[in-house]
Specification:
Blueprint (H helix, E strand, L loop, with lengths): L1 H8 L6 H4 L6 H14 L4 H42 L8 H7 L1 H20 L5 H14 L2
Helix pairs in contact: 4-6, 6-7
Length: 142
């Protein structure tokens, strides 16, 4: 996926896993890609930040989803225990609900940053294999 994104930001046509995505706003994506290509020589750091961000979002989503699903049973048990302690009535505010998964969100964010930084920092053809192996170990760990 990250390899495909690098090619797209260099002006190539969609290929690989990205070409198979159905709900992509290709028109807007091409505008972002053109913008990045235009500014690449003038402000390479900012373009690198943009590309890293675009790469990290789907990686973050996958990791956050996995971590939330893994901890869902424990969280549900905590909620049910609270309901039982308060004789069947329990109101949970939105802030508290967000707090329940803060650790998973922060963990996923840090892991996504690490994966994308590793991919972008590895200067060999082995980068996709290395990062995919790291991602698989993060997703499958219990």
């Amino acid at each position: 996926f990250c390899v495909d994104l690098e090619h797209l930001f260099d002006g190539a046509q969609p290929s690989g896993p990205i070409a198979q995505l159905t709900d992509v706003d290709w028109r807007t994506f091409r505008k972002i890609s053109s913008y990045a290509q235009y500014w690449k020589q003038r402000s390479p750091r900012e373009v690198n930040k943009l590309i890293t961000f675009v790469m990290a979002v789907p990686v973050f989503s996958r990791l956050a989803g996995q971590l939330i699903v893994q901890s869902q049973n424990a969280t549900e048990n905590q909620i049910f225990e609270q309901i039982a302690q308060q004789q069947g009535s329990f109101i949970m505010g939105g802030k508290r609900f967000r707090e329940l998964f803060r650790q998973e969100i922060d963990t996923a964010y840090n892991e996504a940053k690490l994966l994308v930084s590793t991919f972008r920092g590895t200067k060999t053809d082995e980068a996709p294999r290395i990062v995919n192996g790291m991602l698989e170990s993060m997703v499958t760990k219990s």
